[in-house]
From TrEMBL:
Protein name from the UniProt record: Nickel transport system permease protein NikB
Record lineage: Bacteria, Bacillati, Actinomycetota, Actinomycetes, Micrococcales
Disordered as annotated region, ranges: 1-29
Transmembrane feature ranges: 44-65, 142-167, 188-208, 228-249, 294-315, 335-358
One of the record's GO cellular component terms: plasma membrane
Organism: Microbacterium azadirachtae
């Protein structure tokens, strides 16, 4: 009788790969390698090349659009001066702003790129001939501190709250979805005016506007920081409440979709703790579209703050853009749009990298 040469089913052959938990296959909990996450260099490189092309296209459009409009910054400045400037002064201004009609358009385009590579964004007429970079640098921190902080807070609160509501579907927390959605339909400026009337005029809890009181010297001291925080509280609360509904609804709907997946059912059947299933499996998959939406929402920071900064008289970049538009200050407009485009591109690159790390299916493009 011949001996049975087949290996026992319970023993693994030498050198064979370790068995993989079927509940982890195809989910974001899967790791590219045991104990180490593979960096998706090919995916990152491809996206970076795409964004480089996008940046070139945006900068090119940013150059040509103002020159296609009727008039320019020098014409607007000459109109405000009511003919008090001589033709020689007008020619000097055109040379300063790169708008000399005797220079070919392609040469102006190359000169514009040369200025950008040197970090020179031009001179702003509406700010008293100050460099555009200085004008933007003075206003940008206020916008980042106000709207950037409010956007991050609303994203975190809305995502966590939406995940919990989706996990406990049919519970009492479901009432928060229509409430936050309704508040999200209210315009920013209208909600801001209501809050000013209620919390500032009636109750006197917060200042009605501005970044700090008149007479306070800016600096890293307790008085100035306290003024900034108190004046920013009401705009931040307004932005968070107005934008919370979208994050809650989006995360809740994605959670409802993810909870019907087989790997969630298997994970619960294996007796895993509900908290682990919620945050490591369900929420980790459901949050992926939220990350992309968060990156895209950064592009609306300036557009969304123009009205807010008008309501609260806040000295941010949105109010600066409005003043540049009214004055036809194309150099300042181009500088603000350039900063906006670069910020959105960088935010999307970071979102793509985070997406690739969280979702292994994206990393398969490297194979």
């Amino acid at each position: 009788m011949s001996a049975d040469t087949s290996a026992p089913a319970t023993e693994a052959s030498p050198g064979a790969p370790e068995p993989v938990d079927p509940t982890l296959v195809g989910t974001t909990a899967t790791r590219a390698e045991r104990g180490r996450m593979r960096v998706p260099w090919r995916f990152i490189g491809g996206r970076a090349a795409f964004y480089v092309f996008t940046a070139w296209a945006a900068i090119t459009i940013n150059f040509f659009i103002p020159r296609l409009m009727k008039g320019d910054a020098v014409d607007a400045y000459m109109a405000r001066s009511q003919g008090q400037l001589t033709p020689d002064a007008e020619k000097a201004l055109r040379l300063m702003f790169g708008l000399d009609h005797s220079v070919p358009l392609w040469q102006q385009y190359l000169d514009y790129w040369g200025m950008l590579l040197r970090g020179d964004l031009g001179v702003s007429i509406s700010t008293g001939m100050a460099p555009v970079g200085d004008a933007i640098a003075a206003a940008l921190p206020w916008t980042l501190g106000l709207v950037g902080f409010a956007t991050i807070v609303s994203f975190l609160i809305g995502t966590v709250l939406g995940a919990v509501i989706g996990w406990r579907r049919g519970g009492r927390l479901d009432v928060l979805v229509p409430v936050t959605t309704f508040l999200g339909t209210v315009p920013y400026f209208w909600l801001g005016l209501i809050f000013i009337a209620l919390f500032s005029t009636l109750l006197g809890w917060f200042p009605a506007g501005h970044a700090y009181e008149v007479g306070v010297d800016p600096g890293w001291n307790a008085e100035f920081i306290g003024q900034v925080l108190s004046h920013a509280a009401l705009p931040v609360i307004t932005i968070v409440i107005a934008s919370l509904g979208g994050w809650v609804l989006g995360m809740r709907n994605m959670m409802l979709t993810v909870l019907d997946e087989d790997y969630i059912t298997v994970a619960q059947a294996k007796g895993m703790p509900n908290r682990r299933v919620l945050w490591r499996y369900a929420a980790r998959n459901a949050v992926l579209p939220q990350i992309q939406s968060f990156a895209l929402s950064l592009g609306f920071i300036v557009g969304g703050t123009i009205v807010m900064e008008m309501v609260f008289s806040y000295p941010g970049i949105g109010l600066l853009l409005l003043g540049a538009t009214n004055a036809k200050d194309y150099a300042l407009m181009q500088g603000i749009f350039l900063v906006l485009v670069m910020a959105v591109l960088v935010a999307n690159i970071i979102a793509d990298i985070a997406y690739a790390i969280l979702d292994p299916r994206t990393r398969q493009t490297e194979a």
